């Protein structure tokens, strides 16, 4: 069993090293780069490698012990170590993407859409975030419950709460979270999505083919959707 673990470990490791050589090999004119050099270069471009850089280096150390004739008989890959490289192998070569975790049904409104229609959808679908598009089919803001609350409070104070003429544009003007969104390409990993939420302090990611506002929205990712992936 232990010998099988060693063989399995080397199989997973070789896949990882091949992946790095094919995708992240530095362009410095050398034929050969050590695994550690490949990891260092990959960490500049791949969010997952950057987060797990120390783990990759430990895996490299284990591979070195297994590969050297005078040391390999002293190294036994435990089940825990094998599980670790299996997980890393899967996350690196077959990462979960933004497209995988998106909410499939995305309801957006136009700037001229009535507030009554927005509230009706909240009541029936329990949605709380809606992309608002202009006449050019571009997203101009994210309408959230923050904007609706502010609009209702303002008009209640004025004694003029009437949904009849209110539009999505009216609500968006009062929404403190209207710019708290960003676009992300469908093939981005969940680690890239996590970085977007942290770095930009946003409420939602809108998934498109290439992360472009001109493209159709394929789905939406909220912080809750992302947290589900890291439980």
UniProtKB/TrEMBL annotation:
Coiled-coil intervals: none
Protein name, entry field: CBS domain-containing protein
Residue ranges occupied by any CBS domain in the UniProt entry: 101-158, 176-231
InterPro entries in alphabetical order: CBS_dom, CBS_dom_sf
KW Signal (keyword) present: no
Keywords: CBS domain
